[in-house]
Design goal:
binds nicotinamide-adenine-dinucleotide, alpha/beta, 24% strand, nucleotide binding, single chain, GFO_IDH_MocA-like_dom, six-stranded parallel β-sheet
Length: 337
């Protein structure tokens, strides 16, 4: 029995590579329609996945579906989400939630007013390692978190496709694209403690080097207008601090994706998962041989959205939490002017 009719808005890389395949595996879901400003692309994707309806405008889609998956460039997340929610349609919106805090606030209010689901695509929270770390910290396994270190580092991986290097469409570069995932995950693991201060700085010199070396295709170094590297130091009112760094292009020896939390009683490294303790004259590191849960975090995220829409399951990624991530990014940008 069909329980949820879905529409897809903006059917580029992430919609066709992750979301449409994931939702098509879920029982009770009908892939009902697509909309993209590029009508040829919309038709192509509709054919590829046997989706019966190609809308000429988003409003047409809202009339036929219960929920939409919004995968447009970041600039349009706000207007599309609000329009869908006002039409009574649940929304899954890709990350980052929006470009400004004010736009995020609008989205939160629209969801509350319409009493509809608004989930943001922070799929790192659905990784098995993240879920395990959440359980560990919640059960007191590391005591009180003190110092968080986040490195979401790519040595030379500026996306050479799409509009990722266009500030007016995306709002920013590596922070909006990559760093936001790890920032969101760290805040969630800490249980979103109140923030005392954010200090940050962005950089853009390395990607402008005319001697372009890039592993993810070529981009136009004369038009790129987003940051390729950012750092931040976040202080929480409970005394904990976060050292954060993200890049698309940096003169470092290798790519690195780490999130570690040192607490009063122990520490956890999320990728790869390991728990550190020191007691009884020993320093120990425990690694996981196997972690339970869904290996495909995109599918886990999609199932969770369907459950929230059809059964009112409490959201793992709450709208106000996604808003806070965008607000921190906005603060880093403001300080970097
Ligand atoms: N969660 C993740 O790890 C992840 C990974 C990649 C992208 N994303 C996010 O997904 C979104 C899309 O990224 P992508 O890589 O699929 O980009 P893309 O460029 O491949 O696709 C975007 C699509 O949106 C369409 N579009 C543009 N403006 C539109 C509008 N106003 N209305 C309808 N359609 C419109 C384009 O024609 C294109 O087909 C971005 O917000 C990005 O941050 C998330």
């Amino acid at each position: 029995m069909i329980q949820l009719k879905l529409g897809f808005i903006g059917v580029g890389g992430i919609a066709s590579g992750r979301h449409i395949p994931a939702f098509s595996k879920i029982e009770g879901v009908e892939l009902a329609g697509v909309y993209d400003v590029n009508e040829n692309r919309a038709k192509e994707v509709a054919d590829q996945f046997a989706i019966p309806f190609v809308a000429k405008e988003a409003a047409e889609l809202f009339k036929r579906v219960d929920a939409v998956i919004i995968c447009t460039p970041n600039k349009f997340h706000h207007e599309m989400s609000v329009a869908a929610l006002e039409a009574g349609v649940h929304v899954f919106c890709e990350k980052p939630m929006a470009i400004t805090d004010a736009a995020c606030e609008d989205m939160v209010n629209a969801a509350e007013k319409a009493k509809r689901v608004l989930q943001v695509g922070y799929h790192y929270r659905f990784k098995k390692e993240s879920q395990a770390a959440k359980r560990l910290i919640a059960s007191g396994g590391i005591g009180d978190p003190l110092v968080v270190r986040v490195e979401a580092m790519r040595r030379r991986k500026v996306p050479g496709w799409g509009v990722f290097t266009n500030k007016s469409l995306q709002g920013g570069g590596c922070l909006m694209d990559y760093g936001c995932h790890l920032l969101d995950l760290a805040l969630w693991l800490l249980d979103f403690p109140e923030i005392e201060s954010v200090h940050g700085q962005t950089y853009e010199m390395v990607s402008r080097d005319p001697d372009q070396v890039n592993q993810w295709g070529l981009y136009d170094a004369t038009t790129i207008d987003v940051e390729d590297h950012a750092t931040a130091y976040i202080k929480f009112k409970n005394g904990a601090t976060m050292l954060f760094e993200t890049s698309w292009a940096a003169n470092v020896p290798e790519d690195k994706e780490t999130l570690s939390i040192s607490g009063t009683q122990g520490g956890v490294n999320v990728f790869p998962y390991a728990v550190n303790h020191a007691s009884q004259g020993m320093m120990t590191t425990t690694v996981a041989d196997w972690i339970s849960g869904e290996s495909d975090e995109g599918l886990a995220q999609a199932r969770h959205f369907v459950a929230a829409c059809t059964s009112g399951t409490e959201l793992i990624v709450k709208p106000n939490e996604a808003r806070l991530v965008s607000s921190i990014i906005e603060q880093i940008y403001k300080q970097s002017k």
